Amino acid sequence: MSTSVTSPTGGGSSASNQPAGTSPTLADAFGKIGLIQTLVLGGLLFYLFWPSLEQVAFRRWIQDSDWSHGWLVPLFSLYFLHTRAGDLAAATRKTNYFGLAIVLLALVLYGITFTVLRTSYPRPLIFLIAAAGLVLFCGGWGVLRVVWFPIAFLALSVPLPDTYYVALTQPLQRIGAIVSSAILGLFPGLYTEVSGVVIDYSYKTVRDSLNVEQACAGMRLMMAFVTLGVAMSYLGDRPWWQRMLMLISCVPIAIFCNVIRVTLTGIFHVFRDEPIGKSLHFETLSGGTPHALLGIAMLPIALGLYALIGWVLANLFIDESEPADGSNEAS
Questions:
Q1: How far apart are CA 88 and CA 149, in angstroms?
Q2: How far apart are the C-alpha atoms of 215 and 225, rounded to whole Å?
Q3: How does strand 190-195 pair with strand 206-211?
Q4: What gap in Å lies between CA 217 and CA 174, rounded to an integer?
Q5: Residue 146 has pLDDT above 90, yes or no
Q6: What is d(CA 215, CA 67) in angstroms, rounded to the nearest whole number?
Q7: DSSP type of residue 131
Q8: pLDDT at 10
Q9: Which among 45, 107, 133, 320 is least surrounded, fewest beta carbons within 10 Å?
Q10: Structural domain boundaries in the chain
Q11: Is the pLDDT of residue 325 over 80?
Q12: How far is Cα 112 from Cα 108, in angstroms, rounded to an integer?
């Protein structure tokens, strides 16, 4: 299925001509011929799938704030590809016709979504399959091993159908309501009770309810946190099990940050008549721009938690197969 070719993308010669002490860039890794090949074939594939990409992905990124993080995912993928430029330049390139078969199969599946399934959601994912097949066809397994993650990472920007959206959102809403209700109940004179995703409370003479909206504990933060967690697990040279632990931590971190946001929103809502300063009340912080900024503030918290987990995993376990230099020389 594979035939060896002489640097079809020009990567090998570019890497060999690098000055000593410098790292190859993506342009060096691809080479002039490879860059033209990538732009032409990739451009044709992108043009073919553009109507579906624009409808399913790009339009949702603009109109649906739950998926606004989709604009950042391609930038992350380009950065991941940049970090592997040296490996890409050193990869052995072979034309692999199995990759061509994958591309043709992807095109058949793409047509089926129009004629038989009549569903638009799989089309961006089929585009990623076709892109991976194109890489395999032009560069072989050696190149695909280097670039598979930047391609697969793009799947996190594909909006889920509403059915899955609701199925994932409701449990998060429920958890956020239960934990936040318990925390709010610790305040003197404040009594809370959870009904579904609604927190009923009584404080002094006021009886009211707080609805845990999707914006507070749903897909918006969840998908952004998962995307951030996957990116953090990929960065750095980590064993596979550490990457898996960081991936598993995505959901607890998302829930933790969502609980913080819901609890603070509840505090602003319950004590909305309480003054903070001479002319500022908690009610001012319970909606509008302050509420949106509160959600954005959760991202640095999540980033810090991911960094903390990564640091603990890197320093808690020491690989005895790689002792420090000179540690065993004396013996």
A1: 13
A2: 14
A3: unpaired
A4: 9
A5: yes
A6: 11
A7: H
A8: 42
A9: 320
A10: 2-12+23-159, 163-314
A11: no
A12: 6
**Single-letter amino acid, residue 255:** I
102's tokens: 């994958």
* Inter-CA distances, 327 with 286, 319, 320, 324, Å: 58, 13, 11, 5
Is the CB of residue 270 less than 8 Å from the CB of residue 184?
Answer: yes
**2-17 average pLDDT score:** 44
User: Bridge partners of 94?
Assistant: 4
Give CA–CA dist 138/33, Å, rounded. Answer: 12
- CA dist 178 to 88, 181, 184, 196, 261, Å? 49, 5, 10, 9, 13
pLDDT band at 331 (very low <50, low <70, confident <90, very high): very low
CA 31 to mean position of chain CA atoms: 29
- 265 Cβ contact partners less than 8 Å away, ≥ 6 residues apart: 210, 216, 286, 291, 294
Identify the H or E element spanning 12. helix 11-16
